[in-house]
Amino acid sequence: MRRNKSHNRRHRLGRGALMLAAIVATLGFAQLALAPLPRADAHVTVDPGTQIAAGGYGVVRLLVPSESDTAKTTAVSVTIPDGVDFTSARTTPVPGWTATVDHRSGADGRVTRITWTATTPDNALTSTELGQFAFSAGPWPTNTNTVNLPTEQRYSDGSTVSWNEIAVDQGSEPEHPAPVVHLGAAGQDAHGQALDHAETGSENPDWTSRWIAIAGLVVAVLALVALAFVYRSGRNRPE
Question: Residue 39 above 70 pLDDT?
Fold first, then answer.
């Protein structure tokens, strides 16, 4: 009788360990599935995969979350700052949204503003959505390695959030920072890598998050295998 109780106790412990390992493995799979998704910050930001060379043309992709729980984002407007003299700008179509490119009157006709507007209330961004708005423009300036793009985000309740503040140093971040485009040297991206074309905009995946998720998944699977081996060894051991 004592042997049966001991065997049943080990059996229950083994089942519990296997269930725990299965839960860990499931969490690893869930982390792996969610890792490629972009991180939805409360700020309007420039896609970190953006690659633009100073003096050239390039594609900027703005990531726009809707931070209001009660109103939808109905419009996004980017102001092209002085000193950035785009001679042309083209927008990437966004289903359910229209885009307009404003030019300054006069001989140069530089681009001054780019605006995207939802065509209907149903197409506006909710608090669970992340909008992506892209434009191709140039030439980008050669006398700086960063360009701030002041952006206005308008909501269905009539409110407007201005993302136009600039950090005073690298250790601080304002409450409403302006999206920042990082420029590389001529023929290079902001990381010093050679560009194949003057105009490019890539969606580089977040490989760091992916490798962390993969490593966690591998550890979970190995733990599951090891516990299964220990459990089987315990069952086969003579009483």
Answer: no
**Residue 81 burial class via C-beta count within 10 angstroms: exposed 0-12, middle 13-18, buried 19 and up:** middle
Asked whether the whole model's pTM tops 0.85, one would answer no
Tens of pLDDT along 45-98? 999 988 899 999 999 999 999 889 999 999 999 999 999 999 999 999 999 999
Classify burial at 218, counting beta carbons within 10 Å of its beta carbon; exposed 0-12, middle 13-18, buried 19 or more.
Answer: exposed
Pick the CATH number of 45-203 from 3.40.50.150, 2.40.50.140, 2.60.40.2230, 2.60.40.420: 2.60.40.2230
Q: State both tokens at 91.
A: 């927008």
Which are the contacts of 25, defined by CB distance < 8 A and separation ≥ 6? 217, 220, 221, 223, 224
CA distance 84 to 134: 17
Q: Would you state the structure tokens that stand for residue 184, as one six-digit string?
A: 């590389």
Confidence of residue 40 (pLDDT cuts 50, 70, 90): very low
Residue 64 and residue 131: Cα distance in Å, rounded? 5
